[in-house]
Amino acid sequence: MGDGSVVPKLGNMKALLGIIAGAGASYGLYKLISGESFKKNKKSAASESPGFKNTPQGEVKLQPGSLLAKVSGLDVVCPRPEDFASGDIIHQSPNNLGPQHFKMLLSCLQNGDDLTQRCRILCTLGNAAAFTVNQNLIRELEGIHIIAGFLSDPAAEVRVQTLNALNNLCMNIQNQEQIKVYVPQVLELIEMSPVNSDLQLGAMRLLTNLSVTDKHQHLLKESVKLLLSLLVVSNEALQVQTLKVLVNLSSNPDMMDDIVQAQAPASVMLLFDERTAPAVLLRLLTFVGNLKAWRPSAQVADELRRKQDSLFRVMLDESSQLHSRLVQLLSHPDGEIQTQVARILT
Predict the structure, then answer these.
(1) Which pLDDT tens digit goes with each residue over 151-201?
(2) b/e for 110-120, b at 16 or more Cβ within 10 A?
(3) 3-class DSSP state of 12
(4) What residues have CB less than 8 Å from 69, skipping those under 6 apart?
(5) Confidence class of residue 21 from pLDDT cuts 50, 70 and 90?
(6) Phi, psi of 136 (to 5 degrees)
(7) Are 108 and 11 in contact (CB under 8 A)?
(8) Do residues 41 and 92 lie in contact, with contact meaning Cβ atoms separated by under 8 Å?
(9) Do residues 310 and 255 touch, judged by C-beta distance below 8 A?
């Protein structure tokens, strides 16, 4: 921190941690992607308008189908008042926070050694980062690198809160320039964490927001194999988030060569089944639709066929089971799934 840093008293820290986060997250993300366009017939994970609502309990919940819900799936929730001492909570919008407040929070985050306090500070910073003005302030105070330093914290709950904070900070183009350097570390977290853990889900949300536009998608070229492997072993929530990343990547023609050459488990075909959760199946079909729009030359196709376990062989080659499985899905009870399947087949 700079020379103006102040280490707050305990009462001030409790007050800062009690600040209630509002619902500016969706607007920040909308500004991030609204100027971007994708190829016709290509779909990315961010395709809806922003929306949110306040619950009676004071939490900020995302409207079903809203932009932020589709992209990150992350609710912006403030700490519960009962978590803090009575009378120490400041009920105000994060838009009213000044640089001095963030200096105090970041200073305590760096200098404190209490696990609970680290989690609460990261939670507060993450909620405040739902607003563009605060995203900029945190970046200007070198807060992104301070927060990202806790990606290697020994406590899993601290790493989760770190990912959540970076997830909101990532809804800002300038912030993405700093956050992108941590992609290898985030991918390592996904590989090393227990399957279906909050760590994997938080990491995948961050990669989703970072891949909404094509500017940083090249950083994930080597991760397609990991994403496809995770897809066949994870639960519905993680499958949905993984597919959001794959849909984003496949909406970029420049990524297609890397995607189709990636090693893919043959068991991915088992997901094309009526028993697969509709939320998963719809995104899987969107991913396939993007792949089908790619047209390789005869020479490239022949080369890809020689790679026995490539995604091309598993899903796109004439020998693939995809066509027969799609035909079976034409009788799916979900009308939207039927429409997606018919679009791919025709």
Answers:
(1) 999 999 999 999 999 999 999 999 999 999 999 999 999 999 999 999 999
(2) eeeeeeebbbb
(3) helix
(4) 48, 51, 62, 63
(5) very low
(6) -70, -40
(7) no
(8) no
(9) no
